[in-house]
Amino acid sequence: MSPAQTPPEHPAAPEPPRPRRALWTLVVWAVVYALDQVTKVLAVANLEPGVARPFVGEVLQFHLIRNPGAAFSFATGATWIFTVLAAVVVVVVVRMARRLRSLPWALALGFLLAGATGNLTDRLLRQPGVARGHVVDFLQLPHWPIFNVADASICVAAVFIVVLAVRGTGLDGTRETRPASSRTTPARSEADGA
Protein backbone atom coordinates (compact mmCIF):
# COMPACT_ATOMS: atom_id res chain seq x y z
CA MET A 1 0.00 0.00 0.00
CA SER A 2 1.46 3.34 -1.01
CA PRO A 3 1.76 6.21 1.48
CA ALA A 4 -1.13 7.92 -0.27
CA GLN A 5 -3.34 4.87 0.40
CA THR A 6 -2.57 4.43 4.11
CA PRO A 7 -5.75 4.60 6.15
CA PRO A 8 -6.09 7.63 8.41
CA GLU A 9 -5.02 7.08 11.98
CA HIS A 10 -7.77 6.92 14.52
CA PRO A 11 -7.65 9.96 16.80
CA ALA A 12 -6.78 9.16 20.36
CA ALA A 13 -9.80 8.78 22.57
CA PRO A 14 -10.24 11.84 24.78
CA GLU A 15 -9.56 11.36 28.47
CA PRO A 16 -12.75 10.91 30.43
CA PRO A 17 -13.61 14.07 32.33
CA ARG A 18 -12.87 14.10 36.02
CA PRO A 19 -16.10 13.74 37.99
CA ARG A 20 -17.76 16.97 38.95
CA ARG A 21 -17.75 17.66 42.65
CA ALA A 22 -20.68 20.06 42.78
CA LEU A 23 -22.82 17.28 44.23
CA TRP A 24 -20.66 17.38 47.38
CA THR A 25 -21.23 21.12 47.61
CA LEU A 26 -24.96 20.46 47.50
CA VAL A 27 -24.76 17.69 50.14
CA VAL A 28 -22.71 19.82 52.57
CA TRP A 29 -25.00 22.79 51.98
CA ALA A 30 -28.17 20.75 52.60
CA VAL A 31 -26.90 19.13 55.81
CA VAL A 32 -25.41 22.27 57.37
CA TYR A 33 -28.26 24.55 56.26
CA ALA A 34 -30.84 22.17 57.75
CA LEU A 35 -28.83 21.92 60.99
CA ASP A 36 -28.61 25.72 61.18
CA GLN A 37 -32.32 26.27 60.64
CA VAL A 38 -33.46 23.49 63.01
CA THR A 39 -31.16 24.66 65.82
CA LYS A 40 -32.36 28.26 65.42
CA VAL A 41 -36.01 27.17 65.66
CA LEU A 42 -35.20 25.11 68.78
CA ALA A 43 -33.24 27.98 70.31
CA VAL A 44 -36.08 30.47 69.80
CA ALA A 45 -38.64 28.00 71.17
CA ASN A 46 -36.67 26.89 74.23
CA LEU A 47 -34.31 29.66 75.32
CA GLU A 48 -35.07 32.88 77.11
CA PRO A 49 -33.44 35.85 75.32
CA GLY A 50 -30.40 37.23 77.10
CA VAL A 51 -30.19 34.41 79.69
CA ALA A 52 -27.18 32.09 79.48
CA ARG A 53 -27.82 28.38 80.00
CA PRO A 54 -24.80 26.07 80.51
CA PHE A 55 -24.59 23.17 78.06
CA VAL A 56 -21.03 21.88 78.42
CA GLY A 57 -20.22 23.55 81.71
CA GLU A 58 -18.79 27.02 81.12
CA VAL A 59 -17.10 25.89 77.88
CA LEU A 60 -20.24 26.01 75.75
CA GLN A 61 -23.41 27.81 76.78
CA PHE A 62 -26.71 28.58 75.11
CA HIS A 63 -27.36 32.33 75.10
CA LEU A 64 -30.09 33.55 72.77
CA ILE A 65 -29.73 36.98 71.16
CA ARG A 66 -30.97 38.65 67.98
CA ASN A 67 -28.14 40.10 65.92
CA PRO A 68 -28.98 42.87 63.41
CA GLY A 69 -25.37 43.18 62.23
CA ALA A 70 -22.68 41.00 60.74
CA ALA A 71 -20.64 38.38 62.57
CA PHE A 72 -19.73 39.37 66.12
CA SER A 73 -22.46 42.09 66.07
CA PHE A 74 -20.39 44.28 63.73
CA ALA A 75 -22.21 47.16 61.96
CA THR A 76 -25.59 46.59 63.57
CA GLY A 77 -27.14 49.51 61.69
CA ALA A 78 -26.37 48.14 58.22
CA THR A 79 -28.50 44.97 58.13
CA TRP A 80 -29.66 45.52 54.53
CA ILE A 81 -26.05 45.76 53.33
CA PHE A 82 -25.29 42.32 54.77
CA THR A 83 -28.44 40.96 53.17
CA VAL A 84 -27.19 42.13 49.76
CA LEU A 85 -23.67 40.81 50.42
CA ALA A 86 -24.99 37.41 51.48
CA ALA A 87 -27.10 37.22 48.31
CA VAL A 88 -24.04 38.08 46.19
CA VAL A 89 -22.00 35.37 47.95
CA VAL A 90 -24.72 32.81 47.20
CA VAL A 91 -24.77 33.72 43.49
CA VAL A 92 -20.95 33.62 43.22
CA VAL A 93 -20.69 30.25 44.99
CA VAL A 94 -23.38 28.69 42.80
CA ARG A 95 -21.60 29.90 39.66
CA MET A 96 -18.23 28.61 40.90
CA ALA A 97 -19.69 25.22 41.81
CA ARG A 98 -20.36 24.48 38.13
CA ARG A 99 -16.59 24.39 37.44
CA LEU A 100 -15.60 22.25 40.42
CA ARG A 101 -13.28 19.27 40.04
CA SER A 102 -11.73 19.49 43.52
CA LEU A 103 -13.33 17.75 46.50
CA PRO A 104 -11.76 20.12 49.08
CA TRP A 105 -13.07 23.12 47.14
CA ALA A 106 -16.49 21.46 46.89
CA LEU A 107 -16.56 21.06 50.68
CA ALA A 108 -15.33 24.63 51.25
CA LEU A 109 -17.99 26.09 48.97
CA GLY A 110 -20.66 23.90 50.57
CA PHE A 111 -19.82 25.27 54.02
CA LEU A 112 -19.68 28.83 52.68
CA LEU A 113 -23.01 28.46 50.88
CA ALA A 114 -24.67 26.95 53.97
CA GLY A 115 -23.42 29.77 56.19
CA ALA A 116 -24.45 32.49 53.78
CA THR A 117 -27.92 31.06 53.09
CA GLY A 118 -28.50 30.24 56.76
CA ASN A 119 -28.04 33.83 57.88
CA LEU A 120 -29.63 35.19 54.69
CA THR A 121 -32.80 33.25 55.55
CA ASP A 122 -32.93 35.04 58.90
CA ARG A 123 -32.40 38.43 57.29
CA LEU A 124 -35.18 37.80 54.79
CA LEU A 125 -37.78 36.12 57.00
CA ARG A 126 -37.32 37.21 60.60
CA GLN A 127 -38.39 40.40 62.39
CA PRO A 128 -38.32 43.35 62.02
CA GLY A 129 -38.88 42.84 58.28
CA VAL A 130 -37.72 41.62 54.89
CA ALA A 131 -34.00 42.27 54.24
CA ARG A 132 -33.75 43.76 57.75
CA GLY A 133 -34.34 40.62 59.84
CA HIS A 134 -32.18 39.93 62.86
CA VAL A 135 -30.04 36.79 62.85
CA VAL A 136 -30.62 34.28 65.66
CA ASP A 137 -27.38 33.63 67.58
CA PHE A 138 -27.33 31.25 70.54
CA LEU A 139 -23.93 29.54 70.98
CA GLN A 140 -21.38 31.05 73.33
CA LEU A 141 -17.79 30.08 74.05
CA PRO A 142 -15.63 31.76 76.70
CA HIS A 143 -14.24 35.12 75.54
CA TRP A 144 -15.93 34.74 72.15
CA PRO A 145 -18.95 36.52 70.66
CA ILE A 146 -22.25 34.62 70.51
CA PHE A 147 -22.70 32.82 67.18
CA ASN A 148 -24.77 30.18 65.37
CA VAL A 149 -24.21 27.14 63.14
CA ALA A 150 -24.14 29.32 59.99
CA ASP A 151 -21.35 31.48 61.47
CA ALA A 152 -19.36 28.36 62.40
CA SER A 153 -19.87 27.04 58.86
CA ILE A 154 -18.47 30.25 57.36
CA CYS A 155 -15.41 29.94 59.64
CA VAL A 156 -14.86 26.33 58.51
CA ALA A 157 -15.12 27.49 54.88
CA ALA A 158 -12.59 30.26 55.53
CA VAL A 159 -10.07 27.76 56.91
CA PHE A 160 -10.55 25.48 53.89
CA ILE A 161 -10.16 28.39 51.47
CA VAL A 162 -6.99 29.71 53.12
CA VAL A 163 -5.38 26.25 53.11
CA LEU A 164 -6.35 25.65 49.47
CA ALA A 165 -5.07 29.08 48.44
CA VAL A 166 -1.75 28.56 50.25
CA ARG A 167 -1.36 25.16 48.59
CA GLY A 168 -2.22 26.66 45.20
CA THR A 169 -5.12 24.26 44.59
CA GLY A 170 -7.51 25.44 41.88
CA LEU A 171 -11.22 24.72 41.52
CA ASP A 172 -10.31 22.08 38.95
CA GLY A 173 -8.09 20.27 41.46
CA THR A 174 -4.81 21.21 39.81
CA ARG A 175 -1.96 22.63 41.84
CA GLU A 176 -0.12 25.75 40.74
CA THR A 177 3.55 25.25 40.14
CA ARG A 178 6.01 28.07 40.38
CA PRO A 179 7.74 28.78 37.07
CA ALA A 180 11.43 27.91 36.93
CA SER A 181 12.35 31.57 36.50
CA SER A 182 10.80 32.45 39.86
CA ARG A 183 12.76 29.85 41.78
CA THR A 184 15.69 31.25 43.65
CA THR A 185 19.08 30.56 42.15
CA PRO A 186 22.39 31.06 43.88
CA ALA A 187 23.84 34.50 43.23
CA ARG A 188 26.98 34.57 41.10
CA SER A 189 30.06 35.72 42.90
CA GLU A 190 32.40 38.30 41.43
CA ALA A 191 34.93 35.49 40.95
CA ASP A 192 32.60 33.86 38.41
CA GLY A 193 33.08 36.84 36.11
CA ALA A 194 30.54 39.15 34.63
How would you describe this protein?
- The chain is mainly alpha-helical and 194 residues long.
- It has one domain (19-172).
- Helices cover 44% and strands 10% of the residues.
- The protein has a three-stranded antiparallel β-sheet with strand order 1-2-3.
- Strand 1 and strand 2 form a beta hairpin.
- It is elongated, with a radius of gyration of 25 Å.
- It starts with 21 loop residues before the first helix and ends in a 27-residue tail after the last helix.
- The chain crosses the membrane at residues 70-94, 106-125, 145-166.
- This protein specifically catalyzes the removal of signal peptides from prolipoproteins.
- Its main location: membrane.
- It is found in: Cell membrane.
- Keywords: Aspartyl protease, Cell membrane, Hydrolase, Membrane, Protease, Transmembrane, Transmembrane helix.
